[in-house]
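In response to reviewer comment 3 from the previous cycle, which asked for concrete evidence that the modeling workflow produces usable outputs, we include below a single protein chain processed end to end. The sequence was submitted unchanged, and the resulting structure tokens are shown without manual editing.
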Amino acid sequence: MEQTINGIFKQRADKYQSRIALEKKRNGAWESITWNQYYEKARAAGLGLASLGIAKGDRVGIFSDNHLEWLYADMGGLGLGAVVVPLYPTLTEEEAAYIVQDSGCTVLVVGDKEQLAKAKRIRAGNPALQMIVSILDAPTNGDGGLISFARLMEIGAKKQKFEPGLFERSAALVALDDLATIVYTSGTTGLPKGVMITHRNIMFVLQGLASIAPAYATEDDQTVPFLPLSHVFGRIADHYMGMYAGIACSFAESFNTLLEDIQEKRPTAIMAVPRVCEKVFQKIMEQVETQPLAMQKVFYWSQKIGEQVSELREAARPVPPLLNLKYQLAYAMVFRKLQDRLGGRVRYIMAAGGPTAREIQLFFNAAGIAVVEGYGLTETTAPAALSNLSDYRIGTVGAPLPGVDVKIAEDGEVLIKGDNVFTGYWNLEQETRRAFTDDGYFMSGDLGELDDRGFLKITGRKKDLIITAGGKNIAPQKIESLFMSDPLFLHFIVIGDRKKYLSALVNINLEQAATLAEKAGINFSQPVDLLDNPEFLAIVERHVGERNTHLARFETIKQYRIIKEEFSQESGEMTASLKLKRNVINDKYANLVEDMYPG
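The workflow returned the following structure tokens.
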């Protein structure tokens, strides 16, 4: 019988035993878990869920930030043959209630007090939700529908004593085509849809990743995961691939402590999203602006040399001796500092979920850190294509994973077929039928093209495509990525469908604004005051003009308006996975958009 992720889990525990499998920082201290302990705790969690009545096919929700208990609940639930339903920890009560009810969760594992409070109110209106399991807030009020995670594992450990082998027998009964998880899309438009992912989908992706050479992951690697486990990329790349390869995963305490955690644990690989690379790059550029002019000249010279070397590496061409000598000097003066800030051992950063500006990729590559771009969706169990560490082209997302068939439709849409593709949307048969072509390809909704080496290039999102009044087809993501490589811009959204020219709505990075204002001798009391200051607005205009020089004339931004309130999930302009909701932003700021197109 072919293995599921359950079989891999047991094998790794048997193989690595007392080696460290997991670590999580809590209140400034690291908690380490061996492979044996990981398996025992997950088994206890699974048998605890069985004691609550959870059986094969039942849905168990996890509504929590990243905790070790998240992993125990996941692997414990999967071992029973249950279907795990992850919920973003930042979801509103209404969003979480919809997912819990739509999926039919009977148990909900929650993290902090805020998530517990939401879960209690959700249960009050949803009789099908029978039990809440609290990770951090151990309940003591005698509520029969509420227990602590610690108590859940105590119950499971006792069950193991009386029924040894029950968990292993349950895990062995799980087949590849059984449903493993329902992951709800973040919903940039309309209600989220539950994507049904099987054990076969998961194993196909893991085996495909493991077959690529040079290897992305080996048992000697170390990672510091920080992406939410509720996101399919974080769960597949950090959790399951880490398990498959035998990696030690040291989960960061929070995003705010990420740099400190990375420096402590010195990872060899980092799973991220483009925004993380952008933030690191922007922070470096902000710091450069504060340096004396001589130091700035050294930095920009080094950056230029680094780009030349990175481009030769990309083309698999040798670096001339003189250029190599200059690069060694540039590395010592500039690029080594970036490596050191990331612990000194990082081989690559895997950035997926959107484009990363070429300028940023070249900079990281010059520091010896490959930026590996990948492409996938929740519906493709994360990666459908991935750049190869030894053979890549910046601007593409690499070749399709082994066994994945990608083709381009007549209208440019990326079509995908393979065992990584989901089985359908939960309770939405009509939506499922509409998602596939007649010959069984999943219609991704993304636009792309395949180059002469079969590398996939994503050119935009079909529904986001801008068609100007002049008939030009423009994918806004490319332009937005270019502007986001300038540390002055925090968020940048391009507008112009059926308009004569492109415009934009912009959030300004107030930290960088203050730095630029001080350098220019502009007086201000609070950084936000600069957004009304004509002298500072002239600086913004110059930055927009500089970015425009890198674009074709029809792609340039002719008008823009600065939005003082930062786009956020709380204000409804971003999804839980930090994607901008274009329709919401366009509606909310319709008056400003109209103002940019007089007449």
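The first strand starts at residue 20 and ends at 26. We consider this sufficient to address the reviewer's concern, and the full set will be provided in the supplementary archive.
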